[in-house]
Write a structure and sequence with these properties.
Largest interface: A-B, 16 and 20 residues
Largest sheet of chain A: 7 strands, antiparallel
CATH class of chain B: Mainly Beta
Order of helices and strands of chain A: EHEEHEEHEEHEEEHHHEEEEEE
Strand order of the largest sheet of chain A: 7-2-8-1-14-13-15
Helix content of chain A: 25-40%
Largest sheet of chain B: 11 strands, mixed
Structural class of chain B: alpha/beta
Oligomer: heterodimer
Shape of chain B: elongated
Number of strands of chain B: 11
Number of helices of chain A: 7
Shape of chain A: globular
CATH superfamily of chain B: Glutamate synthase, alpha subunit, C-terminal domain
Distance between the termini of chain B: 67 Å
Distance between the termini of chain A: 34 Å
Strand content of chain A: 25-35%
Number of helices of chain B: 3
Radius of gyration of chain A: 18 Å
Strand order of the largest sheet of chain B: 1-2-3-4-5-6-7-8-9-11-10
Number of domains of chain B: 1
Radius of gyration of chain B: 19 Å
Structural class of chain A: alpha+beta
Strand content of chain B: 15-25%
């Protein structure tokens, strides 16, 4: 099954309320996905440094040492903030350098995302618990994308939960299952040299989309290309630093509802996820057509 | 009018559980007494106003979730909003009127009654229809009337791909364009009897003034579901 929610705030006046508006949407989708939950939140843009969100078992003392070592290895300063089991490192160091150094310093760490704006928090557990643990309700920002998972394709572990990020500030959540992900994974490995971290089908779709974006395509065009190259069932919601997009497979196997007002765009697997948003009674609410990309760019 | 309003029973989902609301609605089942009920704050809840079996009138003030008005008998149910998947599924009689759009599989397997949709219907509208009627004033999605056996679908807008795939003896009338017809579905002549049927359904859907000239009729070519004797050697 799985549940997807997304909220893209066009009106900056709402940015302070992002978490407050978004958290109940995710929790409402609990019965579609009680295994695990995750959120990509776009907030606190840096002045060019990159934020690395890492899932880690290390404590504060260990992390001070890791940050010192990262500083020594990369020659760049590292700021770091803990949020429950995740830590956000901010540094000017190159992603490849940081990833390599982290693999040595904290072998159990999982790198969730890299970007100037996006942070990803995801874990096994009921959505309400995950929201509580990471303090999602209090987060301010421009947009957020979330997922509640009922696993079908790979194990119920943090690494298998959504969102997946395979490019800077890019994330993807997926309801469905892909049938050509093994072959596509090999193609992306060979052609683009992409390294995959999981056996999950959604990671392949995310890599396909971020590879397109890296080749100069827009998020909208990258999703359009999915219609030809991905086989299987999918409702996707994808985000970039200034973009938000949704796509359903041509059979429209998995549910989706979009709502738009002058102030926001909201996505839910079902309308009930959107029912408590402000001004929802005045919103345009519709079911996205199959095989049609809907996208918005922050003005 | 004011006397009628006084008799409206209001069921508010902010104050009552969905089960209590459905139990209150179903408490009329078996009665021939008319009644008028309003449901407030549906907020996309699933399975609202299901299994009704009485000539009651139910107004749902907002968007509903899956399977609203399922298995309906006799009741007149109006949704002042959109309805999720499977609205009026397996309806037996009565009328379900959705003021907005409906999601997939609207009126699936409906045996009787009428579903009127003011907006658009998504994919597989009228799938496996068994005698009910559907009037959609907007467009219908792909695979609508898939394997429909009896009953009618009237579409004032356009139909998406594979309309009427593997259809049996159901009828489809479309005023707009048809992206493609499904397997064994063909366009058919409009005889007077068909015009009469179409006129009647449009009247029932409160749009009897619409001209019939623009409509085309579609139904089964009967090539797929009949066993052909010359194929006996294959078996």
């Amino acid at each position: 099954m799985c549940g997807i929610v997304g909220l893209f705030l066009k009106d900056p006046a709402l940015h302070d309320s992002l978490g407050e508006m978004f958290a109940p949407m995710l929790i409402e989708m609990s019965d579609r996905g009680p295994d695990s939950a995750g959120v990509a939140v776009y907030r606190n843009a840096t002045n060019g440094s990159r934020k690395f969100t890492v899932s880690t078992g290390l404590d504060e003392g260990d992390w001070n040492e890791v940050c010192n070592q990262l500083h020594r290895l990369t020659g760049k300063k590292v700021a770091s903030v803990q949020n429950c089991s995740h830590r956000v490192l901010t540094t000017d160091a190159e992603p490849a350098e940081v990833e390599k150094a982290l693999a040595d310093l904290d072998p159990l760490a999982q790198l969730m995302s890299v970007g100037r704006m996006m942070e990803i928090y995801k874990e096994v557990g009921l959505p309400a618990e995950v929201v509580e643990r990471f303090g999602i309700s209090g987060m301010k920002g421009s947009h957020a994308i979330g997922h509640t998972r009922m696993a079908t394709e790979s194990a119920v572990i943090t690494a298998g939960s959504h969102p997946f990020s395979t490019g800077l500030d890019m994330c993807l959540v997926h309801n469905g299952s892909l049938s050509n992900h093994n072959r596509l994974r090999e193609v992306l490995r060979r052609r683009a040299g992409i390294e995959f971290k999981t056996e999950n089908d959604t990671e392949v779709a995310a890599a396909y989309i971020s590879d397109r974006i890296d080749s100069g395509h827009s998020l909208h065009n990258a999703l359009e290309a999915c219609i030809d190259d991905l086989d299987g069932f999918y409702t996707f919601v994808a985000g970039t630093s200034d973009g938000f997009a949704a796509l359903r497979d041509p059979i429209a196997c998995k549910p989706a509802v979009l709502a738009e007002t002058a102030s926001y765009v909201a996505f839910g697997s079902e309308y009930r996820a959107l029912a408590r948003l402000p001004d929802i009674a005045a919103a345009r609410v519709w079911e996205p057509d199959p095989a049609k990309v809907y996208s918005w760019t922050m003005q | 009018m004011s006397a009628l309003r006084e008799n409206v029973r209001v069921l508010d989902l902010l104050e009552m559980s969905r089960r209590k609301v459905n139990v209150a609605l179903q408490s009329h089942n078996g009665s021939s007494e008319p009644a008028h009920l309003r449901i407030l704050n549906p907020a996309g809840a699933h399975a609202l106003a299901c299994g009704l079996d009485a000539p009651v009138s139910v107004d749902i003030e907002g968007h509903t979730g899956y399977f609203c008005a399922g298995m309906n008998k006799l009741a007149q149910i109006t949704v002042f909003g959109n309805a999720g998947q499977g609205v009026a599924e397996n309806m037996m009689s009565g009328r379900v009127h959705v003021r907005g759009d409906v999601s997939q599989s609207a009126a699936a397997t409906a045996h009787g009654g009428l579903l009127v949709v003011e907006g658009n219907a998504a994919a597989r509208c009228g799938i496996s229809l068994k005698g009910g009627n559907i009037v959609v004033k907007g467009n219908v999605g792909h695979m609508s009337m898939f394997m429909a056996q009896a009953g009618c679908l009237v579409v004032l807008g356009d139909a998406d791909e594979a309309l009427g795939d593997s259809i049996y003896e159901a009828a489809i009338y479309v005023r707009g364009s048809v992206a493609s017809l499904g397997a064994d579905c063909v366009e058919k002549d409009m005889a007077d009897s068909h015009r009469e049927q179409l006129r009647g359904l449009l009247r029932e859907a409160s749009c009897g003034d619409i001209k019939l000239d623009g409509f085309r009729r579609y139904g089964s070519a009967r090539e797929l579901y009949h066993f052909k004797q010359q194929n006996i050697g294959v078996y």
